[in-house]
Design a protein that fits this description.
The protein is an alpha/beta fold. The chain has 13 helices and 13 strands. The strands form 3 sheets. Strands 3-4-5-6-9-10 form a 6-stranded mixed beta sheet, with helices on both faces.
């Protein structure tokens, strides 16, 4: 009998936050197992909701402010000051440069900027912290972190010494980086970028080619952005005397449209996101007490084991010997082969327009959870096969 169910989903992009997804799954569990103990663990991957989740988990607080959004206009945003005497701020790039902040009619990754990320880092420096963690995920940008560096005092110059405007489409023109005006306080803090280590800046699997189309790039723009990022990595490496990390192909350099590379050029450490983010939540201990683990995300496919929340949950649950059910908005190629996932369920009951599915996300997720658990309950009552 399933007495304790851990619900550990990520958010569904542009539809449900991680807490909303956890609530929807829990509602479906209740329909089948009304007496079960449900442990909700909304999970963050550095994207939307990261700062709030870590502030809540550590007894910290959010600091609200206005900063430059991805299309260059002010947006209301925030960063977190963690509790427990950690002297740490968490800057969530999605809260100021995320795809959800880019209107669908203005989705041009050549124009969007990470300038607001640099403004949040400056605000965290104003708060006097000694450690700043930048969470990468759900980005709407492809500027290699150039905007963030500009906000921190770096000047990006063309061949005539003219400072370049914001946006990834300008990267091919950069001839020189002048860091003489860089905020000196950065030298006194530990800057950590929590990122997906599988994302790289350049090459055939570079960030512009893999994620540019999702952000609105045409095939021609993808190639233009890729060429610009190649130039960006070359100039940064030369002018900032970057050592110890390959800005082109180093692990995590492509995080959030190349923000990882930009911050690494200032000495930031690029680290796998889950150990940094999830250990605050006591995830392993809570998974070990479960009879069933339910995880979820917008898509389940062959990319899931490469730094996605359901893949990480399944990996950790299997170390504890716990069964895992994964629920997803779409089941792509390789969905049934994700290591550690025992069963998977799509949320769509039939053909449906994307816009409708996004609006009905909570309802569809609850119904899918109920369907999956009823099948699990039926399987538990079937007689074992005779050998």
């Amino acid at each position: 009998m399933l007495k304790r169910v851990v619900v550990a989903p990520s958010g569904f992009k542009e539809s449900l936050s991680a807490p909303a997804a956890a609530d929807a799954i829990a509602a479906g569990v209740r329909r089948v197992l009304p007496d079960a103990e449900i442990d909700r663990i909304p999970l963050v991957d550095g994207g939307e909701g990261t700062a709030a989740a870590l502030a809540r988990a550590t007894g910290g607080r959010l600091v609200a402010l206005a900063a430059t959004g991805p299309v260059g206009e002010p947006v209301g945003t925030h960063f977190a000051l963690l509790g427990g005497g950690q002297d740490t701020a968490v800057v969530e790039m999605a809260a100021v440069a995320g795809l959800s902040l880019v209107p669908r009619t203005r989705r041009d990754p050549g124009a969007t900027t990470t300038y607001g990320v640099g403004e949040l880092i400056r605000a965290a420096l104003d708060a006097g912290v000694r450690r700043i963690v930048v969470g990468c995920g759900d980005s709407g940008t492809s500027d290699g972190g150039a905007g963030a560096l500009q906000a921190l005092g770096v000047r990006l110059l063309d061949g005539e010494g003219v400072e370049l405007p914001l946006g990834g489409r300008e990267l091919w023109r950069i001839a020189r980086v002048d860091a003489s005006g860089l905020d000196p306080r950065l030298g006194g803090v530990e800057l950590v970028v929590a990122c997906n280590p599988y994302n790289v800046l350049c090459g055939e699997r570079g960030v512009a080619r893999v994620f540019g189309p999702q952000k609105g790039a045409t095939p021609r723009q993808v190639e233009e952005l890729s060429a610009g990022l190649e130039n960006w990595a070359r100039v940064l490496t030369r002018d900032l005397a970057v050592t110890g990390v390959d800005l082109r192909l180093g692990r995590g350099t492509g995080a959030s449209g190349g923000l990882g590379a930009g911050l690494a050029s200032l000495g930031a450490a690029l680290v796998p996101r889950f150990p940094v983010l999830l250990d605050h939540l006591g995830l392993d201990e809570r998974l070990a007490r479960a009879d069933l683990v339910v995880t979820a995300e917008g898509a389940l496919d062959r990319q899931t084991p490469r730094g996605k929340v359901p893949g990480e949950v399944a990996r950790r649950a299997k170390l504890a010997g716990r069964p895992v059910l994964a629920i997803a908005g779409t089941l792509g190629e390789g969905a049934a082969e994700v290591p550690g996932v025992d069963a998977c369920q799509g949320i769509l009951p039939g053909p449906m327009e994307l816009a409708e599915a996004l609006v009905r996300g909570a309802e569809l997720l609850t119904d899918a959870t109920e369907r999956a658990l009823r099948l699990i309950a039926l399987g538990a009552r079937l007689p074992a096969g005779q050998g």
